C-alpha cells in the first residue's frame, strides 16, 4: 500500500491505518522526502502537522537527516500561534506573545477570587476549565453566554487577559481560524503547497477546519490516522473527522489494519477491545508478524503485591539484558503512576535492581516556586514589558499571589506598567506592610531588568539564572544546556525553553512510567499496564462536556492505545484491594472499605469491565 500511495497524484489523500502499520515511517516521511527530492520545491512549501508536541518532536527527529532540505514540522496549535504572530492587524496581536504557562493560571484564579469573593477557588477553577475548553472549539462570542453568571465570569477573564496583554493557549486556534477567514489567502496561509497531517483523528473540529483553510489551494493534502486511537476527547477531538474526510468528494482513501509492531497474542487483545466498541465491525487488526509474543494478566490481592510483581518482572528483564528504554509502565491515572515510581525506587535494590537505575514518572514539569521565579525572569529578560510575567513574578511565594496588594498599587498608580516605574514603599502607610513589601519587590525586579539587555551573552545569562552550584536549579540548567544551539539568542532559546515546559521530557536511560494517554506514539518491547480496576478504567466521568457513553468509549481507547505499544510482551495487572486514602485522593470508585484490625483500611475494587469482557484469558495470581 505505501508504494501505491507514494505514486498517487491525487490532490487529497486519506490513510486510515492500524497502530504499528507504519503510517508515519512508511508513508508520511517518505512522501515528504519524495516531494523535496524535486529541487524546485522549497522546504518552506512542505508542512508536517500533528496534534501533540511529543509527536511533533518525533517528526522533527525523523526529518533531521534531510538537513537544510528538511520540511517544517509542528503542531497545529504551534502553526496557529505562528500565524497570529505573523499578522499585525488583529485584536489578539498584542496578547499572543505572552501565552499563559500552566502555573500562571493560579495567578488568574487568585485575581478572579477578588472579583467573585463569595465563590470558592476550586469552583472558579472548574469554571475556568470549562470556559477554556469552550474557547478551544467554539467562536468566542458563543462561549459562556447561557447565563448572567457565565457572562460576568467571561467578562472578568477577558478583562484580565487584556490588562496583562496575555492569551490562553486554548484560544489560539479559534483566533487563527477567524483571522484566516477574514484575511483570505495571506502569504502565510498559501505558502504550504504540500500539507501532510499525522494523527488527524486527534484534532478537534476547529483544528481540522484550520487545516482545510491551509489546503484550499494546496497541491497536496495527505492526512493519516486511526479513529481507534482517538484519546483526546477531553480536548474535544473529533475522531469522526478522518472518516468524514475519507468519504469526501475527490479524496483518494486508503485503509490498512495490518500491524507490524505487535505479536499475535497482543493483536488478539486489541481486537477484542475493538469488538467491544463496535460488535459488528469487520475492521480488525491483522498481525504481520508470525510470533505469538507474551501476554500476562496478573491479579493480586493488594496493590503492594501488584507493584512488587511488576518490579520483580522488570528486574528479571534488566538481568536478561533488556535496556531501560524498552520498558514502559503505563497507568490509567497520573497519581497512581507517581505512586508506582515511589514504590519502585524504595524497593528496587531488594529486587536486585541497581541503585543507580532511575525510574521516573514522565509528565509535564511541576516547578518549585524558586524554579517558577527563574523561568519568569528568563521570560522578562526576553520581553521586559510582559505584564503577564511581571504580574506572576510579583505574586510568587504567596498563597493569594498578592492579588489584593496588586489591586491596591494599581489603584494608586493607575496600572501595573506605571507601578513598575513609580512604586515606592514610602507612598503607603507603615501599617500597610504587605503593600510596602510588594513595592520593594517591584523595585528589586526593576533593578534586575535594568542590568540586562536582549543582546547580551546568552551563556552568561544562563549561568546567572541557573547557576551550576545551585542544586535547586540543576534540572532547569540541564534542560537549557541540552536545547541550546550555536547562534541562539535569548529570544530563540527562551522560545525553545517555554516549549519544553509544555512538553513531556524523555530519557532513554530511565525506566519510563506514564499515563496511558502519554504513551500515544511510543512503543517498547515490554509494556506493563497497572491499576486496571473498574475504579480506574473507566473510572468516574469528571468531564465537563462528555456523556458517560462517550467517556467510557474513550477510556476503552486509552487501553487500546496502551495495549498496542507492545512489541514483545504485554502485562496487564490489577489488585482487589487498594489503599483507602489513595482511592479517595485519586477519585477511584470502589465497592466499599475493608477493615482488618491492625492494618490500614483498604478499598475493595472490581476488575475493569473492559478486561472482564475478554475471553481466553488466564489470570495469574
Describe the structure.
The chain is an alpha/beta fold and 621 residues long. Strands 9, 10, 11, 12, 13, 14, 15, 16 and 17 form a 9-stranded mixed beta sheet that branches. A 6-stranded parallel beta sheet has the order 3-2-4-5-1-6, with helices on both faces. β15 (592-594) and β16 (602-604) form a beta hairpin. α4 packs across α8 (172-183), α17 (403-413) crosses α18 (416-422) and α17 (403-413) crosses α19 (433-450). It starts with a helix and ends with a strand. The model has no long low-confidence stretch (mean pLDDT 91).
Which properties best describe this structure?
621 residues, alpha/beta, nine-stranded mixed beta sheet, six-stranded parallel beta sheet
Quick summary:
By secondary structure, this protein is of the alpha/beta class. The strands form 3 sheets. Strands 9, 10, 11, 12, 13, 14, 15, 16 and 17 form a 9-stranded mixed β-sheet that branches. Strands 3-2-4-5-1-6 form a 6-stranded parallel β-sheet, sandwiched between helices.
